[in-house]
Amino acid sequence: QCDAEVGSRIKLPGLGCLAMDMFSKHDLGANLGVTLPVLAGVLCCLRDWRIIAGIRLLDEHRLSGSRSSALLEYGDSQQKRMAYISRLIANGSTSYLMAQYRYLLAFVLLFSGIVGMAAGRYAAVAFVFGCATNILAGYIGMKIATFANVRTTHECGQSPTDGYRVAIRAGCMASFSLVSLGVANMYALIVSFRLLGHWEGDDMWVALGGFSFGVTSIGLFGRVGGGIFTKAADVGADISGKIDHGLLEDDFRNPACIADNVGDNVGGVVAKGADLFSSFAGAVCAALVIAGSTSDLQCDADGPLQGMLIDWTATIFPLLIASSSIVISILTKLIVDVRYKVRHVKDIELALRRLVVISTAAETPVVYGLARWCLPQRFAVSCDMREVTPLCCTISIWLGLWSGLAIGYVTDHFTSRRHRPVKEIASAHGVSAASGIIFGLAVGYLSCAVPAFCLGVIVLVAQTLVGPYGVALAALGMLSTMPLCLAIDAYDSIADNAAGIAEMSGMTADLMQLTDVLGTAGATGNGFTISSASLVSLALFHAFSLRVGDVDTKMGDHWYFTGLLLGATLPYAFSAIVMKSVGRAATDMAEECRRQFPRIIDCNLPPDYDRCIKISTEASLRDMGPAGLLAIGAPVAIGLLFGKKCMAGLLQGCLVSGVQMAISMINTGGAWDNAKKLVAELGEKDSQAHKNAVIGDLVGDPLKDVSGPSMNILMNLSAITSFVFGRVIGGWSNAAGGPFWLGG
Asked: pTM to 2 decimals?
């Protein structure tokens, strides 16, 4: 029988009872299956770094070829200007991160103590470890992006396809380093607890929750803080530059142009990496906790069912899935580079698509082989005596894997310039800005249908076949393409930076071809991210249920229904805080730019770039606190005041409301952005239609880059917070699951 204790605390079986040796021949293969891909990812990063570092900006020999005419026209002084602008961007990015990290240090010290009191010292140590991991990964990604941006510009002076190769190589470096670091640190945490013997009770599983809580907390501040920074600069620069003075997006006379390019790094590379990493950590944590809720041996009418914890290889199966994605991504990148070489600008978008499609196809047989090798032929993963086979687990992973690809293509349909929805918005902008905004809202609402259907099918099938463990595996399946999806996101930011450097340094307009094909890359990636986050949130809800004991989730229960209403409201309140922060910061930025423009244009004085960077930094640090307090404090407060039933309702209400809001906001903003680009592409750049489209894009920017993507973090953080503080919440609930102050 299952040995879980129903109540405020469950006793999860310790691995001290495992009849195995983690260094046996079979288990040694599993250990190598985790560590060797991590090593391969690190080696690929080092190789790519060496290649990119070999691009010297002031090399006369490289400038002597006929293909370097764009650079020869301006000579070395232009390259010096490129290097100077790049240095401004790098210094601004570093200064922002250092300022943010000072605030985060205080947060980590405070919450490590709180986590220690609520969940134990092991969870507190793991929390600090998770925070440090995400901070380090973000810093590495930012350094890679700011190192590669000017070299991408340099290579585009020869050919946009040469620039593409530098940017995608740097994007893969940022991505592979983050995923390798994440897998390595989670594996190190698990092995450390195993070797130190701290597997009794629920120490290990709560510690994993602490690690995920740390990763997700830093992800929240990275996503919200970085988003506020970049959109304050972006919207403020567009208002004062494009609308007021008719300047180009990255005109060097615009005081906010450097801050805008800094935002591409802190709001793109750092924020998106932290976002996806938090989903990955949450999925692995949920899978291991649910597997850990199984007793060592269960029986049914057909004989014994083996528990997941009987075998070390089966225990780390989720980590093996994650590590396999590194190898598949490396091989996919190699295949695309060799078999589908990018020779023309039009090939770039196709190459980016092939990266995701080929990696999805390649991962399909790999997960089946891993399941057959790692998992027992018949086993149980929960207390309901459900018999599970490796094929059942494989089907769950496949559903997540291919649904992620399908959701990406649906997002592309609603946000790409090639398809009807964006063309309708562009046409509506010819009438008025209001018409285009109305059409864009309709597109966003409509785009929710297919992703919601896909997620529903995943949950129905995975839950039926495997139970809650299947939902966690489906989330891992959807995240199996994370290395390349994150690489494309980082490539997007690096290419945007490269275009900005080119424009500010006076290079030809040919470089803009490199970024024109990226219209939907970022939006497609965001659609994939929110879908995986919703599955992770649901899996973490099951982990929370195991932590506090069975929770009655019937709609007729008044405590549960109250929690649903409060949870459904949470994404709206969170979005209101973020949107208002962006609006206030963008207003401050626009006013500062308007103050500087007369002396810049009339007196030919240089802009004060540092002042604009300071405005964005101060706004980001000022306003990320309330958002973080709401995301972390609301679940704990509701659970303590109204009990675990209300807490369960809050988690599910936040999930259902948040996923629809996120998809709608992301696709609405993406559609407005590409409608603006379509109007400009049709030769109407100085027309009223283009001005209307710019207004739509300004409204959509914070939706698609801040509020929408932040829903991922909100859902995951609410769920993992509830799990980590589950013992306290369960203890403050009465026997019926209501608040303690009612008694009974």
From this structure: 0.87
